[in-house]
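Sample intake sheet
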Amino acid sequence: MGKLSFLKQKKFYIHLLIIILLSFILLWLTIKMLNLYTRHDKVYELPDFTGMTTSEVEKTYGKDYHFILIDSIYSKTQTPGSIVQQDPLPNSKVKRGRNVYYIIVAKTPERTTMPNLNNLSLRQALVLLESSGLQVKELQYVKHFARNAIREQRFNDAVIKPGTELNKGSKITLYVGLGTEERNMQLPSLYGIPASEVQHVLNMAGLNLGNETYEDRDSIQYMKVHKMDPPFSKKSVRPGTFVNVWYRSSRSFNFDKERNNAEKEDSLTYAIEQQPIIDSMAISQDTLKKTDIEETDEEDYEDDF
């Protein structure tokens, strides 16, 4: 018998067919088991946990996700123990059992020390103040030859010495030099800037944050500026001017689409506000012209004699 004589036997082909079928069945079972293990195609939209406490999310979503606390920050405006940031972000597509990392509001403030800001430039002082975990309450400009130099630092209306221990987040009033010539400050465009960055941008420009109005009910992380007063079209204002801002949620307001409309409205509002001043200037010019004409007529009249 030859070496390939088994190819003529019926049993060989039956066994080969059985092997092929078993291979396909094993492959199919493997894929099915992998799909079950990895929950293939079963993704869910991650809720927004902002504002909820750890116990609330564990009670409501503890079976669906694995929550891991990574840090805490102190805030006077938010509830202690509430979540302020999460990863993955809200509305992300995730699978059940996914690790969710979060940051909460600390129940007690951290402590820091007051840096020495005297004689520093405004920009240097702001950077040092923020790195120390402190905030600006207000910029007050005073007469001094060094423009934008820090002349004094105060906390609760009292001069505070460098090295004094404070709660992180405490607000400091800075007294800033006007310089030999008082010059206006350039207004920055705040349109589309997140609410968390507005005060920093204004302070860097030598201005103060005024009233804040939230026109949408949403988490602070989605809020952006859609209107400011004085308007950006005014270009410049006095040092230390308070700028009022209005916020809209980026989830319900298309900032890119409405940017041009907002800028047009801003310019129109400023033009309307300036019209009485322009009219009064025009009247003054007309009065001057009439006065000049009358004086000329009187001179002509005297020349006739």
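Comment: Helices lie at 10-38, 54-61, 122-131, 198-204, 255-303. Confidence is low (pLDDT under 50) at residues 293-305.
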